Amino acid sequence: MWAQVGQRVERLRKDRKLSRAQFGKMIGLSEQYVGKIERGSQSLSGVTIAKICNATGVSSDYILFGIIDAADVAAALSGLSREQIKIALDILGRLAQLINTENGNNVLIQEVLHQQLHNNFV
Fold first, then answer.
1. For the chain, how are helix, strand and coil distributed in percent, rounded to 5?
2. Can you give the pTM of this predicted structure?
3. Nearest to 37 by CA among 69, 15, 28, 115
4. Where does residue 28 fall: left (phi above 0), alpha (psi -120 to 50 degrees), or beta otherwise?
5. pLDDT per residue over 40-78, tens digit each?
């Protein structure tokens, strides 16, 4: 479980283009401690989860379980211009259509899309 939590925390940090040191400063933790969280070798207290949620705008459900809600989507789009948000929403709509039309292959489609986006934008 903590390895998956760590992966989500790392993704949140990288999506915001923050170093471990910068992210740690935002949430009151050392760079080394953030690294332990991201590697899944450190569990998170409720206080630490709350700090991460406050700093990133995502829910604790996302941090702990990977459950995404509308607030998490809004947080991911924060800082973008109106035009960039329109583009992102258009892409999300098209992805949702693709995922909904391919019965039984949702996980595979999500993995392929995630990998493609990661390769193209990182």
1. 75, 0, 25
2. 0.63
3. 28
4. left
5. 999 999 999 999 999 888 889 889 998 887 877 887 788
